[in-house]
Amino acid sequence: MIGILASAGTAVVIVPLVLGLRTVFSSSEDSK
Amino acid sequence: MFSLQKLLPKRSTNSKRRNLFGACLTHILHDGYTDQLYALLPAWQAQFGLSYMGLAVVRALYYGTMGGLQVPANRATSWLKPRSALALSTFVAALGFVAMALPTGFAGLCVGLVLAGAGSSVQHPRASDLVTHTYGSESRGALGIYNFAGDLGKATLPAIVALLLPVLPWRTVVGLMGLLGILVASSLLALLPTDTSVTSIHHEIERKRESRGGFGVLLSIGVLDTATRMGYLLFLPFLIHARGGSSATVGLGLALVFVGGAFGKATCGWLGQRVGVVWSVVATEIATAGLIVVTCFTPITAMLGFLPFLGMVLNGTSSVLYGTVPELAPKGNTGRAFALFYTGSSVPVVSRQLLTGQSPIIPPG
Q: ∠ CA(B36), CA(B114), CA(B149), 5° rounding?
C-alpha cells in the first residue's frame, strides 16, 4: 500500500515541476 | 518566433505518411524485440540453468545496451540519412537475433543480445527525429501515433513468440525473428524516401534555433513519470491479491491498464496539441495520483473498472512529454534530445529489473 501511494506521490511531485515549465513557454511567447 | 513549419517545404501527404509509417514500423519491430525477450526467458532458463537474477542480467544486457548507447549511437549515425540509419540499425538488431539462434552456447547468446541492443539503440532517437522533422509544428499528434506503435509491437511480437515456442525450438523462433528484422530493414529501404530534405532541414534548424531552456526539467519530469508508472505496475499485482483477486484477476488488471495505456498514448498527444503541454501534463498527473489513491480504497470490481482510465493517464503523459522534446531540444538538436530523453526514461525501468528481476509491463517508448 505504501509503495502504491508513493507512486501517487511521485505523480504529484511532477505538478510543480511542469508548472515551472510554464515560465519557459510563456517567456517564449513574450519573445515572439 | 521560430517555426519548424516555415522551414519545411510543402511535403506531400503521401510522403509524410510514408515517413510516419516507416518510423512506426521500426518502432513496432524494435519494441517488440525488447519485450519478446520475456517470452524467451523461460527457454533460456531451462537451457542454461539461469537463476532469476541471471535472467534479469541477461535481459539487462539487451536493455542496458539499447538504453545506454542511444546518445552515442545517435551521434555516430548523424551523418546518415534517416532511411539509411533506420534500415542499417534494424539490420544490425536482426543480425543480433540471428547470432542468438546459432548454436554457440551462452556466450553466443550474450553477444547476440548486446548486438541486438546496439542495433535497437538507434531507433528511438532517429525515428522520433524523422517524425518531428516530417510533421514540423504538427508533430505532437504524429509522435503520439509513433508512441502507440511501440505498444503494438510490445503486444504482438511477444504473443507470436509465445505461440511459436511450444511447437518450435527456441533457436528456430529467434532465427525467425531475425529474418523478420531483415525483412523490415529491406522494407524500410523501399518505404522511406531517399531525398535529403529532412537532413538539410535538420541542419538549418540547428543553426537557426535558439534554445528555450527547460529541457533538464522536462527530462526530470520524464524520469519521474516513468518511475510513477513502474512503481504502480510493480505493486498492482500485490494490491489485487490483497483485495482477494486471483492470478487471472492480476492478468486482467494489467491488461486493462495496458489497453487504457495504449489508447492514452495515441490520444494524449493531441490533448497536448489542443490545451498545451503544461495543463495537459498537470491534468494527467493529478488524474494519475487521484486514480491511484482511488484504486487503493475501492472494492476489486470497482478497482478493475478504474484501471483502463488510470492506464490512459498513467501512460498518456509520456506522449505529451515526448511531443514536447522537439520544442525544448537544446540547440534544436532533436535527435540528441530524444536520445537523452529515452535514456533518462530507461533508468527507472533498468533499476526495477535489476532490483526485482521482474518485467515491466508498459516500458517507456
A: 40
